[in-house]
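Risk register update: the risk of archive-format incompatibility is retired. Evidence:
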Amino acid sequence: GRLAPDKGPDLFVEALARLAEPVHAFVVGEGRLRRALERRVREVRLGRCVTFTGWQREPGRWVAGASVFVQPSREEAWSQSTVLAMALGTPVVAAAVEGLPGVLAAGRGILVDPENPAAIAAAIADVLAGRRRPDTDAALQYAATFTPDLVAGGYATAYRQLLAAPDARRTEVRHRQPRLPTGQARHAEGDQERRG
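Archived output:
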């Protein structure tokens, strides 16, 4: 992941600081906020509890073993990492921004108020204590619709439909030289000779 303001990693750290019982958390990703996040983790005395992994080619191995996956984004049209967590059967807590309510609809995850570390902390605590559990079967079914084969098939279908569209729907651009009146044409040719 990207440790950038729009992804809300600062909200995650603040949520961890609000938990009554400390938990071990992994912050997977790299970015310009890393140093500030590490500093804040030390300030709230969570240095032993929070591990910054840096960028990971295979983030799934970190997500698969987690008790909960947290997506605190400030803006997120669609989240590949959230769908990855769903596919791995990891419960998801996410901010209710942009496309995430659609991704986590029907109980597939737990949505919290955006920009609210206290709400994130409460949802994390609820999942860890077993008081709230997303419907992981529904989450797995949703995530299964994004396998590489299905996505590639969807693109192939869309391209076939575009190629089969009637000619009337296609746009053709033709480039024409502007026509100048006879007197201007000679003048224009003379200008080109003088410049050349």
